[in-house]
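ugh ok so i messed up the first submission bc i forgot one of the chains. this is the corrected input, ALL of the components this time, i swear. 228 residues overall. if the numbers dont match what u have on ur side tell me asap before i send this to the collaborators (the ones from the other lab, u know who)
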Amino acid sequence: DADVTQTPRNRITKTGKRIMLECSQTKGHDRMYWYRQDPGLGLRLIYYSFDVKDINKGEISDGYSVSRQAQAKFSLSLESAIPNQTALYFCATSDNRQYPFYEQYFGPGTRLTVT
Amino acid sequence: DQQVKQNSPSLSVQEGRISILNCDYTNSMFDYFLWYKKYPAEGPTFLISISSIKDKNEDGRFTVFLNKSAKHLSLHIVPSQPGDSAVYFCAARGQTGANNLFFGTGTRLTVIP
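and heres the new structure output, hopefully the right one now
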């Protein structure tokens, strides 16, 4: 079984709709991240969380919110989706207590299309 | 502003030859550099890293070189194999303590049998 899972894997939604992307991990890591990948732009950080009580904005947090429901779960919400949020979204985890603590483990991605 | 850049979107190499993927960065405060490999429909997977205090790190067929004065790093794959065909992302870690990674735009490597 995969250590970092994302649901759904693909989603098509309409402008203005609220949508939630979910991430679960079985690695026991304390840190979790949400990235988006756009063609020609690489991966950009949206939000990250050090633990359940700690949420931090990343490079491109506008239009997004997150919830860390448990150490193993980190969800990303688009309150009112817009077409330029069409992208590939990745969840990642890392363990700050174990070398190499900078290594991040990624889920398989969620392809989101906003029409 | 892109702090980590991969100027070659694609690279084709014959099987058995060397693949060289390049990456440039602008922030001199980055302390670790990583290479990730990504296959279609999968998330990126960690490949190899290098600390800013070193200039070379080797792991099997993969070697990463860091030139701090030029703010440049490269990944060498020798010998290249068809299974190495993937998108390779260069990433750099900031020193903020948040463990955030800044990614390049990726280079698609195709190894021709």
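quick check: The interface with chain B takes residues 4, 31, 33, 35, 40-45, 48, 50, 56, 58, 90, 92, 94, 96, 100-109 of chain A (CB under 8 Å). that seems consistent at least. Chain A has a mean pLDDT of 92.
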